[in-house]
């Protein structure tokens, strides 16, 4: 159940960040590639965090 709570938190955080990046892209369209690359990196970091948490907790239970 805890992993689902973390997934929801990451999705909400990413949605809010994507909204902020969208607003920024409307004001500075020449920075659009940099803005969307940073959004992609944010998504990868969130997925990496969930992956690390899931496998670290799983390994901790075995030991």
For the structure shown, list the relevant keywords.
90% helix, 2 helices, 63 residues, 0% strand, membrane, transmembrane, single chain, transmembrane helix, mainly alpha
Summarize the structure in words.
Keywords: Membrane, Transmembrane, Transmembrane helix. With about 60 residues, this protein is mainly alpha-helical. The chain has one domain. The protein is built from two helices and no strands. α1 (about 1-25) packs antiparallel against α2 (about 30-60). The longest helix is centred in the C-terminal third of the chain and has 31 residues, at about 30-60. The two termini are about 20 Å apart. The model has no long low-confidence stretch (mean pLDDT about 80).
Shape, per Cα inertia axes: elongated
Note the run of SSEs as H and E.
Answer: HH
Whole-number tally of structural domains: 1
Mean pLDDT: 79
**Number of strand elements:** 0
Oligomer: single chain
Low-pLDDT windows of residues: none
State the end-to-end distance.
21 Å
Structural class comes to mainly alpha
- Total of DSSP H or I helical runs spanning 4+ residues: 2
Could you tell me the strand content as a percent range? under 5%
Provide the gyration radius in Å. Answer: 15 Å
Give the biggest beta sheet.
none
Helix content bin: over 70%
């Amino acid at each position: 159940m805890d992993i689902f709570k973390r997934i929801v938190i990451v999705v909400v955080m990413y949605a809010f960040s994507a909204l902020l990046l969208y607003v920024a892209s409307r004001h500075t369209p020449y920075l659009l590639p940099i803005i969307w690359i940073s959004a992609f990196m944010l998504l990868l970091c969130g997925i990496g965090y969930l992956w690390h948490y899931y496998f670290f907790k799983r390994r901790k239970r075995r030991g």
